[in-house]
Amino acid sequence: MTKPDLLLVANLAPRVVDQLDRDFTLHRYCDAEDRAAFLAALPEGVRFIATGGGTGCSRGIIEALPDLEIISSFGVGYDAVDVEAAKEHGVRVTNTPDVLNDCVAEVTLALMLALAHRVPESHAYVRDGRWETEGAMPLTAELTGATVGIIGLGRIGKAIARLAQAFSMRVVYHGRSEQAHQPYQYYADPVAMARDVDWLVVIAPSTPQTRGIVSAEVLHALGSEGRLVNVARGDLVDEQALIDALSGGTIAGAALDVFAQEPHVPEALRTQQNVVLLPHIGSATHKTRAAMGDLVVKNLRAHLRGDPVLTPVV
Ligand code: 8YV
């Protein structure tokens, strides 16, 4: 039996590609030099796409494949997939939620601990031999007893809240609407929440409503003892306002896993003292990435069998 055709829009991990290769004939758009020519030369009847959360899938690709039925995207965030175009053309979109909750929450707490206790600078201090020559490091901050405001109390936000509580932190949150049955105080206004917290953690999806939600005004409200953590998408934070807030002492520090123009990180951020910077590794463990990859494949296989997909977005 001939295998159905699948367009590989982003180059996924070998574990995923090997599994897909068993059930589908792969067309590696991700490697094509002339992408328009590659699309034009595809056989008729391509019904399947696999892609990555960073690459997504454009309207142009969706409209070049009239028989397309499903886009299976690696990652919980699907902001790079043109979901409107998919909906218009009756194309199903799936993502990889839940399996990464604990990992991203763990990395969030790692960022908070690293920033509070100045772990990167302290590590460099010992390695550079400065402890012997310059004496003790300046005193630092701690999480215990502090208040954290979470922007986006979704699946990952709730996992972060639970870990924060293990550090005896008080948890409050902001989101589109108040969630019944949540024990945490809700703020409808992110500025009002920022004013009341020591830590602001951003873990909301990137949408027209959330882009730039951490504005100069929010940073000002967070204040000179406040710290920002972003593990969502770079565009939720006004990056220039953040650079100004860090250099002017408007806030105490920032710990960031995501940036507006990845992998570019503005020099003004890279040279700040009061930051901890990670290269978008929130879900980047062997265990979690394997589970995410398996879910990409399971969604495609379910659709191929005519079964409901496991984790639909639309
Ligand atoms: C991935 C992420 O690194 O799931 C997400 O939305 O941002 C990360 O887990 C990314 O999607 C990989 O493409």
From TrEMBL:
What keywords were assigned to this record? Answer: NAD, NADP, Oxidoreductase
Q: Which residues form the D-isomer specific 2-hydroxyacid dehydrogenase catalytic domain?
A: 11-313
Q: Which GO terms describe its cellular component?
A: cytosol
The UniProt record lists the keyword Oxidoreductase:
yes
Q: Does the keyword NAD apply?
A: yes
GO molecular function per UniProt = glyoxylate reductase (NADPH) activity; hydroxypyruvate reductase [NAD(P)H] activity; NAD binding
Name all D-isomer specific 2-hydroxyacid dehydrogenase NAD-binding domain ranges: 109-282
One Pfam family recorded for the sequence: 2-Hacid_dh
Q: Which PANTHER family does the record match to this protein?
A: 2-HYDROXYACID DEHYDROGENASE YGL185C-RELATED, 2-HYDROXYACID DEHYDROGENASE-RELATED
Give the family per the record.
Belongs to the D-isomer specific 2-hydroxyacid dehydrogenase family.
Name the record gives this protein: 2-hydroxyacid dehydrogenase
Organism equals Sagittula stellata (strain ATCC 700073 / DSM 11524 / E-37)
